[in-house]
Amino acid sequence: MPRIRSRKALSALSLAVTAAGSLLLAAPSAHAGDYLDSCLNSVGSRTSPNGVWTIPARTFSQGSSGVCVQEIQFDVSSVIGLDPADFPGFVDGRYGPKTDDYVRRFQRTFGLQVDGIVGPQTWQLLIARTTD
């Protein structure tokens, strides 16, 4: 009997590992800048204050939404990380209180004006920190 239980346990473990592997393979993995081209196409572009980077032509703050907000969320989470509880679903394209909090943390960390607004200076640093 112990052998049968061991086989059942091994089979269950094997199925669980296979299922988890399938989920990981099926889940798209985003990379820094994945949303940037779409953002620039949707709002236009301008040159960053330092003259080096192409940044979106708009500023974003709480209440904004869309692909540019997804870029902000992805970049901020890539640079400063996320609290584990915030990880699932953070990059959703809605600039709410959590995104505002993380943008402010980013701004504070890098010595920018802490206002929660992703304007030219914040865009410049986000893109500089996430572009190869």
Describe it for me?
This protein starts with a helix and ends with a helix. The protein has a two-stranded antiparallel sheet with strand order 1-2. Helix 3 crosses helix 4 and helix 3 crosses helix 5. With 132 residues, the protein is mainly alpha-helical. The longest helix has 25 residues, at 2-26. The protein is built from five helices and two strands.
How do you describe this structure in short?
This protein has five helices and two strands; from the N terminus they run ααββααα. With 132 residues, the protein is mainly alpha-helical.
Write the layout of secondary structure elements.
Layout: H1 2-26, H2 36-43, E1 45-47, E2 54-56, H3 67-80, H4 97-109, H5 120-130
Antiparallel strand pairs: 1-2
Helix pairs in contact: 2-3, 3-4, 3-5
